[in-house]
Amino acid sequence: MLVVAMAVALVVVAAGVSLGLWAASGGDDGSTGSEARSSQGASAAAPPDGAPEAAPSPTRSYPLSEAPRTIPAVRDHEPARGPGWQPEKGSRVVVDDPALADEGKLVADELGMTYAGEKDDKKAGDLRLALNGDKGANPESYVMTVRDGRVEIDGPTDAGVFYGTRTLKQETHDGGTAPEGVVKDEPAKPQRGFMLDIARKYFTADWIEDRVRELGDLKFNQLGLHFSDDQGFRIESDTQPEIVSQPHLTKAQVRKIIDLAESRHITVVPEIDSPGHLGAVLRAHPDLQLRTAQGSAVQGAIDISKPESAEIVDELLNEYADLFPGKPWHLGADEYQALVRSDPEASFPQLAAAAQEKYGSGATVADLTTGWLNDRAATVRKHDRTPRAWNDGFFRGTSVEPDKDIQVAYWTGKEIGAREPLEYLQAGRNVINYNDEFLYYVLGEPQTFVYPTGQRIYEQWTPRVLRGTAAVPARYDGQILGGNLAVWCDLANSQTQGQVAAGVRMPLRATVQKLWDPGEPELTWAQFRALADRLG
Fold first, then answer.
1. Hey, which of 36, 149, 183, 453 would disulfide with 144, CB 3.0 to 4.6 Å?
2. Which residues form the Beta-hexosaminidase bacterial type N-terminal domain (predicted)?
3. In whole angstroms, what is the distance from residue 536 CA to residue 533 CA?
């Protein structure tokens, strides 16, 4: 009897201990009722006559999951109980629409899985990509559900689904686990960009492709290429080969970059700056260079009173419209040196005469320059492009107004006649944030520029901080389309390509965090930096 009593006591104690570690299926551990019935049914089969009844097989009870740690942070996570998900060799990536084949093949390759195409069945370990047909949702949004040993990512467009795969890739990086539950995510801003000055400094195609991959994993969606300036013209030209600098990118290399960018849902935004910053073009066409009344040449400035000037720039715009398929087009329009003179009409009588002939007796050189911008906008608009221009290409008090659809790329308040960002917003214009106080990475740190830090962007900048350190009122937030971290190569040899990549690494991550999630970051800067280091 003593032996039996001790045995019973041990069973009770063991059962009591197990209650802290195990719970029956179908409870609050997130398992389904069918799983509970299946688990219990196997152990509830009638035992042989005279045999003791077997105890139910226990199922692990998991704590509620925690939100994934990613860059940028996900906007919403509904926790659940379960083991989460890890990719396994041989597990499938399946899609419900052939339009998602590229996203499926890419993530299958990245995670070491098998791309199985369109499938209706469900298997353990699956990653399923789907289009949900929600036309009212943000087109870049997605929902990721981790449940029952499978993952499903769905969104209204292939772009949204792609961003879901970027979240999953980060979650499972270096053996990590995608937490059980549902992620609902979308960007705060539709334009999240990185601009690169390849005119002053040549960057190899391989280096640019590496940046495209980095940008894609961080959910950026634009890459700006400023490829024409005083120091160089860096993309092959068929119409004007004489202007092209050495070294340069061939069109075949650019197409490869564009194709790679499109596979990451990144639009490449070209910029041919005019009527200033055209020194490379003017070296081959010195007859078009702007000259003062005394005959002195003006660096980088084309003479906009000459019809041939418009012809040569439009020929370039038309040529590269065939190369770059995206809608945004940067027209530059900044720092036209004719307008830094105290009396532009006296310094450049040919421009004053052309302005009055075109726009009337009271017209100014600023009117003629604004008309130039509108004419170039009309050229790219014929190719279904959306024009943008630097804010110092918009002038106060002109009789000629810039076209309403030209977006303002706001970078500085240091120009002559500088206007506050509110002037553009109050006029109803859409603005893109390139704030040179935070987002300008200028090689060699000339003038008053200093290299931006990720910490300063992370802790002090938001998309509403358009100029200096002060934010515009929240009511204008909808007119601010996004932002760009910009690399300018004023002192081109002061850093190598590798140093530039290292220098922009944390500023890129901080910038996209602020463009994706409008809220105050949950992580401290030290935590954010450590996360970036862990994710690679």
1. 183
2. 68-185
3. 5
415 or 38: which leads in pLDDT: 415
Q: Which residues of 480-516 are buried (b: 16+ CB within 10 A; e: fewer)?
A: bbbbbbbbbbbebeebebeebbebbebbbbbbbbbbb
Q: Is 216 helix (H, G, I), strand (E, B) or coil?
A: helix
What gap in Å lies between CA 243 and CA 236, rounded to an integer? 9
Percent of the chain at pLDDT > 70 equals 89
Q: What is the DSSP letter of 327?
A: S
**Buried-state track 448-476, b at ≥16 Cβ within 10 A, e below 16:** ebeebebebbbeebbbbbbbeeebbeeeb
- Give dist(CA 289, CA 301) in Å, integer: 6
CB 216 within 8 A of CB 265: yes
Angle at 128 between CA 124 and CA 131, to 5 degrees: 155
User: Rounded to a whole number, what is the largest CA-CA distance in the chain?
Assistant: 121
Query: What angle is formed at CA 128 by the lines to CA 125 and CA 134, rounded to 5 degrees?
Result: 150
The residue written with tokens 């899985």 in the block is: 113
Across 480-485, average pLDDT? 98
C-alpha to C-alpha distances, 461 to 127, 341, 392, 425, nearest whole angstrom: 37, 34, 22, 19
CA 354 to chain centre: 42
pLDDT digits (tens, 9 = 90+) for 44-85: 344 444 445 554 444 578 999 999 999 999 999 999 999 999
Q: What is the pLDDT of residue 59?
A: 53
Amino acid in the structure at residue 129: L
Could you write out the DSSP letters of every residue in 488-532?
E-TTGGGS-HHHHHHHHHHHHHHHHHHHH--SPPSS-HHHHHHHH
CB 191 within 8 A of CB 483: yes
Any idea what the Cα angle at residue 232 is, between residues 231 and 237, rounded to 5°?
A: 160
CA distance 110 to 165: 10
Closest CA to 421 of 463, 461, 451, 457: 463
